Amino acid sequence: MSSNLELPEGPDPVIAVAARIRAEAQAFHDKAGTHLDKINSLESGAPWGDDRTGRQFYGSYTKPTEQGKPGNVEAQEVAKHAGEDGISVGDNVITAMSSYRATDLTSSYDIGQLGRS
């Protein structure tokens, strides 16, 4: 596998895309949190009711998942972390491209110094 990375336009376009991915992931994460707060508020009032249909819905809604947690709890835990992977990808790409830029500048300077010795 080649370790050469060619960025004809430099790292800035990649950083710009990574920043947009990060911003969208953060917005998604924030919206998910807001919706979770609303869901928790609604659930506390048992809006499904206590009739036969409501009890059937509640049984389905809280049916244990493969992990053994109630389905509604599992869904909320997943939603609580929504967007975190996108935030991480954005941060990591920005860090990598910044390192790429610094390495490129340092190497360019070092090569320039070779002829001056």
Overall shape: it is: rod-shaped
The radius of gyration is 25 Å
Number of distinct helices: 4
Structural domains: how many: 1
Look at the structure and give the mean pLDDT.
89
The rounded distance between the terminal residues' Cα atoms is 35 Å
The helix/strand class is mainly alpha
**What kind of assembly state do the chains in view correspond to?**
single chain
Task: Pick out the low-confidence regions.
Answer: none
Number of strands: 0
Beta-strand portion reads under 5%
Biggest sheet overview: none
Share of residues in helices: over 70%
The ordered string of helix (H) and strand (E) elements is HHHH
Provide key terms for this protein:
117 residues; mainly alpha; 4 helices
Quick recap:
By secondary structure, this protein is mainly alpha-helical. The protein is built from four helices and no strands.
How are the secondary structure elements laid out?
Elements: H1 12-43, H2 52-61, H3 71-80, H4 84-114
Report on this model:
The chain has 117 residues and is mainly alpha-helical. Helices cover 71% and strands 0% of the residues. Helix 1 runs antiparallel to helix 4 (84-114). The chain is rod-shaped and about 90 Å long. The model has no long low-confidence stretch (mean pLDDT 89).
